[in-house]
Amino acid sequence: MKKLRIASGLVLLAGLTAGARADEPGARLHQLLRERFEWQLREYPEQAMARGDYSNAEKVTDHSLAAIERRHGETRAFAERLGKIDPSELSANDRLSYDLFGLNLRNAIEGHRFRMFLAPITGRSGPHQRIGQMHERVRFTGYDDYANYLTRLEQVPRSIADTIAAMRLGLAERRTPPKVAILGVPGQTRALLAGGLNALAGPFERMPARITPSQRTELKRRFDTRSMPAVRGAIKLFSAFLTDEYVPNCRETIAAHDLPDGQAYYAFQLRVMTTTNLTAREIHDLGLSEVKRIRAEMMSVIRASDFMEVNPSAATLDHEALFKAFIHYLRTDPRFYHATEQELLAGYRDICKRVDAILPKLFKTLPRLPYGVRKIPDFMAPNQTTAYYSRGDIRNAQPGYFYANTYALDQRPKYEMVALAMHEAVPGHHFQVAISQELTNVPELRKNSWFTAFGEGWALYSERLGLEHGLYDDPYDNFGRLLYEMWRACRLVVDPGMHALGWSRDKAVRFLLDNTALSEVNIDAEVDRYIAWPGQATGYKIGELKIRELRARAEEKLGERFDLREFHDVVLGAGSIPLTVLERRIDAWVSALTAAEQESGSP
């Protein structure tokens, strides 16, 4: 396995600061961390509510250009204050908090200069996605919760107006998403107007008994006469803006390099998303190497499946022809697809319960927060990817959710379901996110932090754990796992290919068609996602390769003393961290076990 070169500059820590005086560096750091956390809760009320904090529940995030610039200035002020603390005087754990806080602040400050807040929409994010789900992940237990919800809805017109103002400035500065990546967004707004917004009325169908009949009448009347008309009018305005003005004038090019300061912007994105110093060319070449390795494994699985019996003539085909014939079989045979969305969702729930049963064999620490399986809302499904995870929070009485796409069932094969469930739910995103939220030895600010290479790398690594517990005994399920690994390897090829190396969209689509069994509708959605979100897709494989490398190193050094459950607890036990910190954390764990054994005199 090729070793990855990791960006340096962060220090591994362990231990906590206790009883520090207010003027000591540790106490000053903790005060600063608390202030930043409170700042986040105040500036992003929706995130605060998701964490169970309803102190600003009557507000929504201010998306105006003035607010964006104000927050940037305040972020710089936090960085200046952090710089006045001497890190050499901090405890180990405080030093980690210091370094991670500093890294996040520096990334936010550097990222601001590229002004991509002027391009705030993609097919997967923006007000067209956010507004239709404003009723989700929020509390509805009393009158104030409903009144605050209505107040938030009534601020949608202002939020849309601010978003349009930013997007118009983006047009003027040539900072827009590629046109091809957002062609489906106007359709999403039309779907909202055609019925997608109806879900916003859901909370009024199950109002708690503590709300009196007169209050129910008052709240429902306000929703019908003020709140919903305000939302509908704003979405109608946004839809017209997208259709008539914005999408027609977005850039025809797809590469991040084509943006103002595009080369620097893409290099920044790769550094943030992978937490390495790998260049676009190095990532591209690593991807080509991984594609070659995984293709060889795929061919072995194909020959172990019943395809060779179902199609006797396949034995005469060369490798390339056999692969293409097998992929055609997977894409066209009804045996690989569910007939109804209920069957698809039931299938995912069954897989998740099977995985639940093996989790104690993989972890000593299990999260308290439960999770569920839901369909992706219909209004957004056509332009969404196959699935995603939405974090919950026990303080907000909200479970995590694995959202599965039930649109175009003939494009949602059964053989990918095990790997996808292990990635999005357990032990992938749900475990990593929930365990991070439940840590007791880190500041609140760190519990919900996110490093793509770590979080997505862990989720991809999690898919592979099914191999050790019989979840891929069916060759088709195992091929689905390899398909997903190949998919992430292809991302290393096509993302820098399109954004830095001159690849066209058609070339990226063709590469995925030739090397994966992904359906064409999934490939189109995925390629547009890579175009719209430069660099993000590279974090998955980079992170997974590093975790696998660290596990192999620990197994080699510890031999029979290696405990997989302890290894996983160490990986997840500090929250989301850069790969350099993870590497030092695992090395310290191995060294501590080795030293303890030597002290005890064990052979």
Helix content: 55-70%
Q: What portion of residues belong to β-strands?
A: under 5%
The largest sheet, given as strand count, sense and whether it forms a barrel, is:
3 strands, mixed
Alpha-carbon distance between the two ends: 30 Å
Low-confidence stretches: 1-19
Radius of gyration: 25 Å
Q: What's the tally of helices?
A: 25
Give the strand tally: 3
- How would you sum up the global shape? globular
Order of neighbouring strands in the sheet with most strands? 1-3-2
Counting helices, strands and paired strands, the structural category is mainly alpha
Could you tell me the mean pLDDT? 94
Order of helices and strands: HHHHHHHHHHHHHHHEEEHHHHHHHHHH
General description of the model:
This protein is mainly alpha-helical and 603 residues long. The protein is built from 25 helices and 3 strands. The protein is globular and about 70 Å long. The model is unreliable at 1-19 (pLDDT under 50).
